[in-house]
Inverse folding.
């Protein structure tokens, strides 16, 4: 029996996770602040765009093919990528050597990266493996010059705590980050993708949780808890792209999909709920199609599927909807669509396929109450086509439109029947795109395919929380041992040392501030900004910096020249330099040696006029200004303080501390009122 699956697809926010058999786990990928994993190159990232790189950095051209894994099978995702007929250009950044170019064997694991990964494992109470064994994971989308990514299992069976309960951690791995994509170009021989190798090989810790996430909101909690734990090591990279969250999501009526591109934690619940709605929609669509085909409906849960029934349905679908391409270029010779006419003039063709039984089921663009596109098969077919590199497709449910007229639509209907899909592209590319469309249409009679999907991004942020297909979900066939890197045992003494020297937790970090005298907001800003270790070093170190002044300085200036900043604050608080001298002196400092900084700043303060004026000079200057502006003071009262600050500072030639001037002004104005 099919059973009724509850929920309103158009109201994703109110879908019931429990009733739908919701399951979710997270994969977190965090870059480490160490050197590259297998090459001893620095982990620098360069801001240069393709315009600056071309002609300046060496480059190499490659084509990649899928290799068989350890079990002798070619992974489905790798096979798919190979069929996309793409070539790759790699620009060799200054921190990319022969290993990044795949022209020399890799070195053993970076020791610092291993230490950080094991530290994270210990913080999650995970169990380390006995020895590190690097594996090759087949990746032929061009993001690795070798055609594979090196991945090493570090630990298993851990857990993290969230406000909604414990979440298991299945595996913790240490792997290489991929090359960074710069551009995609169309050529007569297929797509050409351009990469730079600066990011390739930067160590990533991958943490994969168990499917213990209870609700979409709990997924956000889990991502936040994991990210916080990893950052508490103080040995991870910060900034855009340094941490990535992937979501593994399913409902009982659907199947597992992996969603990439979930950069903004606030979007996670919305993205998940829209995926739940998408899976529910396609379960219902499959049963509508099966009813019209006269076959058994899908059960309400994937665990009830019968393989023999699904095989027989696939046979009937293939009989009803064979893959038959037809060239309809002649129909569009005088097409009003600019895109179509320009494509045809450049040598493209218009190919089409018939989709009998799908009339009215492909859908047109409709939004829910929160502005997200409602799921529709036409969009999934377009996603399948775009994987071949085409810009999109036209389908009969939305025609005539886009410059395609009624007469052209009628001509296609006479060729294909009531439901059809068209693709305008070079012949080889159109064939590949429509093969993907046909395959996805056939799958519409079954449960949704397991696949990797990507959040739709516009201007650097999620467009509406919906996703598009990227590739089939990879399996174990893509893994095989890395024979160039020897295994490395993890000694029990080493693991014991890791566990005994764990960094403080977030709660322990906050507790260290209990007697600091700082406000809660300052403490939170210091801990969140990972400035608390610098703060503690400053107040307990040789300069014994005052807590409030040091906290404010760190929050205002950061840690780029932290020793110079500490010396400047020490000298300012001891009355040796003015407040206005802090910024210029810190910016110009070129050493980290504290004794040298002390001598240099005192000398520079004298020569640049950053020595504070004495108290008598400040009082005299204030009295003189107040006498000159007596009417202004009488009219404005204490409100005159701000405007007169600059006047007094100017009279003193900048050789006074603004704090001292403000105090003197306040005192003398109060005496006058």
């Amino acid at each position: 029996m099919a059973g009724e699956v509850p929920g309103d697809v158009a109201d994703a926010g109110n879908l019931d996770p429990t009733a739908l058999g919701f399951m979710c786990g997270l994969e977190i990928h965090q870059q480490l602040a160490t050197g590259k994993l297998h090459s001893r190159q620095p982990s620098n990232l360069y801001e240069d765009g393709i315009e600056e790189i071309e002609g300046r950095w060496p480059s190499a051209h490659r084509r990649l093919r899928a290799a068989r894994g350890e079990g002798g099978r070619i992974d489905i995702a790798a096979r798919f990528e190979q069929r996309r007929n793409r070539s790759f250009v790699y620009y060799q950044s200054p921190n990319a050597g022969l290993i990044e170019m795949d022209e020399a064997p890799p070195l053993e694991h970076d020791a610092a990266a291993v230490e950080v990964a094991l530290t994270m494992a210990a913080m999650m109470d995970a169990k380390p493996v006995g020895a590190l064994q690097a594996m090759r994971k087949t990746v032929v989308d061009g993001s690795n010059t070798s055609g594979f990514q090196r991945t090493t299992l570090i630990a298993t069976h851990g857990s993290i705590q969230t406000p909604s309960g414990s979440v298991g951690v299945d595996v913790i791995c240490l792997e290489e980050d991929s090359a960074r994509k710069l551009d995609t170009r169309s050529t007569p021989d297929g797509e050409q993708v351009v990469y730079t190798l600066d990011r390739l090989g930067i160590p990533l810790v991958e943490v994969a949780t168990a499917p213990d996430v209870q609700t979409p909101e709990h997924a956000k909690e889990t991502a936040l808890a994991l990210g916080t734990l990893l950052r508490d090591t103080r040995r991870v990279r910060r900034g855009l792209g340094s941490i990535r969250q992937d979501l593994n999501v399913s409902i009982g009526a659907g199947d597992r999909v992996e969603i990439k591109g979930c950069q903004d934690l606030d979007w996670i619940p919305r993205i998940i709920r829209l995926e739940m709605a998408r899976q529910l929609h396609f379960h219902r669509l499959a049963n509508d199609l099966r009813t019209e085909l006269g076959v058994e409906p899908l059960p309400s849960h994937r665990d009830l599927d019968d393989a023999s029934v699904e095989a027989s349905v696939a046979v009937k679908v293939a009989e009803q909807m064979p893959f038959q391409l037809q060239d309809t270029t002649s129909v569009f010779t005088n097409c009003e669509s600019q895109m179509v006419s320009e494509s045809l003039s450049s040598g493209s063709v218009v190919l089409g396929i018939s989709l009998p039984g799908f009339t009215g089921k492909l859908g047109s663009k409709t939004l829910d109450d929160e502005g997200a596109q409602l799921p529709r098969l036409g969009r999934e077919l377009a996603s399948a086509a775009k994987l071949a590199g085409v810009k999109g497709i036209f389908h009969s449910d939305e025609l005539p439109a886009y410059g395609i007229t009624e007469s052209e639509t009628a001509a296609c209907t006479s060729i294909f029947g009531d439901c059809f899909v068209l693709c305008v592209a070079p012949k080889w590319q159109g064939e590949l795109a429509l093969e993907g469309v046909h395959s996805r249409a056939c799958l519409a009679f079954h449960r949704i395919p397991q696949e990797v999907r990507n959040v739709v991004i516009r201007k650097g942020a999620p467009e509406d929380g919906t996703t598009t297909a990227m590739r089939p979900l990879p399996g174990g066939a893509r893994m095989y041992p890395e024979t160039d890197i020897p295994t490395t045992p993890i000694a029990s003494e080493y693991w014991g040392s890791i566990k005994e020297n764990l960094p403080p937790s977030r709660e322990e970090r906050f507790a260290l501030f209990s007697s600091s005298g700082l406000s809660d907001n300052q403490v939170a800003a210091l801990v969140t900004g990972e400035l608390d270790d610098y703060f503690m070093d400053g107040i307990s170190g040789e300069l014994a910096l005052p807590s409030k002044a040091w906290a404010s300085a760190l929050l205002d200036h950061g840690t780029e020249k932290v020793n110079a900043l500490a010396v400047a604050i020490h000298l300012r608080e001891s009355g040796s330099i003015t407040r206005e001298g802090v910024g210029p002196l810190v910016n110009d400092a070129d050493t980290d040696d504290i004794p040298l900084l002390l001598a240099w700043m005192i000398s520079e303060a004298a020569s640049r006029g950053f020595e504070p004026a004495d108290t008598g000079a400040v009082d005299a200057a204030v009295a003189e200004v107040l006498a000159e502006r007596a009417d202004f003071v009488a009219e404005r009262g204490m409100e005159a303080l701000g405007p007169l600050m600059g006047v007094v500072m100017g009279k003193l030639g900048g050789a006074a501390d603004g704090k001292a001037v403000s105090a003197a002004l306040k005192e003398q104005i109060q005496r006058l009122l």
In short: Residues 346 and 357 are 34 Å apart (CA to CA). Residues 268-293 form the longest helix (26 residues). The chain has a mean pLDDT of 91. The first strand starts at residue 23 and ends at 31.
